């Protein structure tokens, strides 16, 4: 950062292994002072109208953790200290009330303030346990529960003492307000859990509603849009442009409705189906892809490349209806691409036409499989047949994997 | 095959009932079917379909898989329910004789899961709604004369479901849970886009023999208790 370079020394940060928040240690390291001095300075300035407290909170909020992966861990049991402080303040208030409740309004104000401070400290202890201690592995949910129970006990006793004690008769409004504050305090101690539970509940409900809506939409679209798209294909003739667009739309809609998101790593069947969909948009062709068995062959493999080439040839030169059949067994992957076009004799293809010779036959041979181009049954169209032994595919894959690792 | 003998048709035309909940689709299909097919009834839901089929006793029912209707048990498609109810009603009307009416499923999707339920309920084949009028007409004639209509997709599904890719082959011809080597060959060729005639030429057998094999496979598809078939259907609650 350009501004940072103007300042001498590193940016201030809080150490991840700290006492309570790491503010003092961080500031000490930044200024080059011993941490004790910084802590003392904060304590002293805290007495000057709370300036130290404000500065401390401000630094706590704005100073980042020092860079690193470790979860911050705190040596001081801050939640317990807060509980203890709360108990002390409430005890002090009780003494104050017992001693001097007859004397005058000034004492009552002090007493009232002390009770509120005690309640606030107890709530703070609960909040600290819920938000800051809970993620720490050595403290966790059990610790949170203990703190909560202790804080609850403290606040409940306070509320009871306020309602049943002497103060209730003499300063009714003040003591009942304070008791109410204690009860609200109990609610606040448990608020994080309640909020989380409520959020989970709403989320679940939203999810369910969304799911219901989705299936409703799916049913509706199935009945209306998909039917209409089928009708369009039917009426417009299978290879007309309108029909091809309708078919592509139908496929997209169906994928969205029923299949959700496609997996990132496609297998051969999925890949050929997607490629067929692309070809159908570009050429006057309908391609039926039938896949049998589960293929370990990946979309990036040589078989896929050769099959794509064969499909492209069929779409470009034959058009009409093209059938693609893929059968994968543990030993063998076979792909058949069959069209009903004018057909051609591979022997008559001139040597400079690289398409079939290089991209299909040559490619398969180099990869360790075989390819065969032949005239369709009864002299109609062409059929390309690719064979690829699957163990070979597995070993090739392993070899490339080793290479990548090494 | 005894059951393959075609029922004599009136005026030489195949009598057909079209069942689909979309009137546009029904009228479109009606206009597209060729002259040798006579539409003798139409229906738009399960109840009207059972009624129309019982009244007309057609040769072939063109049946939408996804059909609305009251009282369709949960987990059944409307199409499968029509086949069950109509077959029972026809049998009753004809004093227990096996009805000659055959069902050809029409599905908007070519997902095997959508289709296996109606096939197992008794349909003699299925075609997608995107098929041309000529294709549908051809399929109607095939079904009317007792043949099964297998699309490449259905053939692929059958090969998958019967474990053909894993090398499973029936040892005996009456085994229901696996396909014989010959049936596998026929299914593979159909999956590769071969018409029955082309399958016959490729395997040096008669078209009739191909049809026999296909009918045998259809029977296995309907009767087999193979885990894949029941599991598929159960998972999608089609049976």
Question: So what's the CATH class of the largest domain in chain B?
Answer: Alpha Beta
Overall 3D form of chain A? elongated
As residue ranges, the low-confidence spans of chain B are 1-10
Label the CATH architecture of the largest domain in chain B.
Answer: 3-Layer(aba) Sandwich
* Helical proportion of chain A, percent range: 55-70%
- Figure out the total of helices of chain B: 10
Number of domains of chain A: 3
**Tally of individual domains of chain B:** 2
Largest sheet of chain A: 5 strands, mixed
Strand order in the sheet with the most strands of chain B = 2-1-3-4-5
Low-confidence stretches of chain A: 1-7, 394-406
Order of helices and strands of chain A: HEHHHEHHHHHHHEHEEHEEH
Strand order of the largest sheet of chain A: 3-4-5-7-6
Characterise the protein shown here.
The complex is a heterodimer of chains A (406) and B (239). Chain A has 406 residues and is of the alpha/beta class. Chain A has three domains: 2-73, no CATH class; 77-261; 269-405, Histidine kinase-like ATPase, C-terminal domain (Heat Shock Protein 90), CATH 3.30.565.10. Chain A has 14 helices and seven strands. Chain A has helices at 2-6, 23-31, 35-47, 51-62, 78-100, 105-133, 140-164, 167-170, 172-236, 241-259, 268-282, 302-318, 354-367, 390-405, and strands at 17-18, 73-74, 285-292, 320-328, 332-338, 370-375, 382-389. In chain A, the strands form two sheets. In chain A, strands 3-4-5-7-6 form a five-stranded mixed sheet. Chain A is elongated and about 115 Å long. Chain B has two domains: 10-147, 3-Layer(aba) Sandwich (Rossmann fold), CATH 3.40.50; 154-235, Arc Repressor Mutant, subunit A, CATH 1.10.10.10. In chain B, 49% of the residues are buried. Chain B has helices at 23-32, 46-56, 78-93, 112-121, 133-144, 152-161, 181-191, 196-203, 207-223, 227-235; strands spanning 14-19, 37-43, 60-64, 102-107, 126-128. Chain B has ten helices and five strands; from the N terminus they run E-H-E-H-E-H-E-H-E-H-H-H-H-H-H. In chain B, helix 4 (112-121) crosses helix 9 (207-223) and helix 7 (181-191) crosses helix 9. The longest helix of chain B has 17 residues, at 207-223. Helices cover 48% and strands 11% of the residues of chain B. With 239 residues, chain B is of the alpha/beta class. In chain B, strand 3 (60-64), helix 3 (78-93) and strand 4 (102-107) form a beta-alpha-beta unit. Classes of the chains: A alpha/beta (406), B alpha/beta (239). Chains A and B meet through helix 9, helix 10, strand 3 and strand 4 of A and helix 1, helix 6 and helix 8 of B. Chain B: The modification 4-aspartylphosphate is found at residue 64. Chain B: Keywords: DNA-binding, Phosphoprotein. Chain B: Residues 15-144 form the Response regulatory domain.
């Amino acid at each position: 950062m350009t501004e940072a370079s103007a300042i001498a020394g590193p940016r201030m940060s809080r150490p991840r292994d700290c006492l309570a928040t790491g503010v003092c240690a961080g500031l000490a390291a930044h200024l080059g002072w011993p941490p004790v001095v910084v802590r003392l300075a904060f304590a002293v300035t805290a007495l000057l109208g709370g300036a130290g407290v404000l500065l401390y909170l401000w630094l706590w909020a704005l100073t980042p953790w020092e860079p690193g992966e470790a979860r911050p861990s705190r040596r001081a049991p801050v939640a317990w200290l807060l509980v203890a402080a709360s108990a002390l303040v409430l005890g002090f208030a009780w003494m104050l009330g017992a001693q001097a409740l007859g004397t005058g309004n000034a004492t009552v104000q002090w007493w009232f303030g002390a009770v509120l401070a005690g309640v606030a400290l107890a709530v703070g202890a609960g909040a600290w346990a819920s938000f800051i201690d809970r993620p720490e592995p050595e403290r966790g949910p059990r610790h949170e529960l203990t703190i909560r129970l202790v804080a609850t006990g403290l606040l409940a006793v306070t509320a009871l003492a306020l309602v049943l004690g002497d103060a209730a008769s003499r300063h009714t409004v003040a003591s009942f307000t304070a008791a109410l504050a204690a009860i609200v305090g109990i609610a606040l101690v448990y608020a994080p859990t309640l909020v989380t539970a409520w959020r989970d509940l709403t989320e679940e409900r939203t999810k369910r509603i969304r799911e219901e809506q989705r299936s409703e939409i799916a049913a509706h679209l199935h009945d209306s849009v998909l039917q209409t798209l089928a009708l369009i294909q039917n009426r417009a003739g299978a290879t007309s442009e309108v029909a091809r667009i309708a078919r592509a739309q139908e496929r997209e809609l169906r994928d969205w409705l029923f299949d959700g998101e496609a997996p990132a790593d496609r297998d051969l069947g999925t890949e050929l189906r997607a490629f067929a969909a692309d070809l159908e948009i570009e050429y006057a062709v309908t391609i039926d892809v039938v896949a049998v068995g589960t293929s370990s062959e990946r979309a990036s493999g040589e078989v896929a490349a050769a099959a794509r080439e064969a499909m492209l040839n069929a779409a470009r030169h034959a058009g009409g209806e093209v059938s693609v059949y893929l059968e994968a067994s543990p030993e063998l992957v076979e792909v058949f691409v069959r069209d009903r076009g004018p057909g051609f004799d591979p022997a008559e293809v001139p040597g400079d036409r690289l398409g079939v010779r290089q991209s299909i036959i040559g490619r398969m041979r180099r990869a360790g499989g075989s390819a065969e181009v032949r005239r369709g049954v009864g002299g109609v169209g062409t059929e390309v047949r690719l064979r690829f032994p699957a163990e070979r595919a597995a070993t090739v894959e392993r070899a490339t994997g080793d290479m990548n690792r090494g | 095959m005894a059951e393959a003998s075609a029922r004599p048709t009136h005026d030489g035309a195949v009598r057909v009932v079209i069942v689909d909940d979309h009137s546009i689709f029904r009228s479109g299909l009606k206009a597209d079917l060729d002259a040798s097919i006579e539409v003798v009834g139409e229906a738009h839901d399960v109840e009207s379909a059972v009624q129309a089929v019982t009244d007309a006793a057609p040769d072939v029912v063109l049946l939408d898989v996804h059909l609305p209707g009251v009282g369709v048990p949960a987990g059944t498609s409307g199409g499968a329910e029509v086949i069950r109810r109509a077959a029972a009603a026809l049998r009753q009307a004809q004093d227990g004789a096996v009805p000659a009416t055959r069902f050809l499923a029409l599905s908007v999707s070519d997902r095997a899961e959508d289709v296996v339920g109606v096939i197992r309920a008794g349909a003699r084949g299925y075609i997608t709604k995107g098929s041309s009028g000529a294709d549908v007409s051809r399929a109607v004639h095939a079904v009317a004369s007792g043949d099964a209509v297998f699309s490449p997709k259905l053939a692929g599904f059958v090969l998958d479901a019967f474990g053909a890719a894993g090398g499973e082959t029936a040892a005996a011809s009456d085994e229901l849970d696996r396909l014989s080597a010959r049936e596998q060959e026929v299914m593979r060729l159909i999956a590769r886009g071969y018409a029955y005639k082309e399958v016959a030429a490729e395997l040096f057998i008669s078209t009739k023999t191909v049809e026999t094999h296909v009918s045998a496979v259809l029977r296995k598809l309907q009767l087999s208790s193979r885990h894949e078939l029941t599991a598929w259907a159960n998972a999608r609650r089609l049976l």
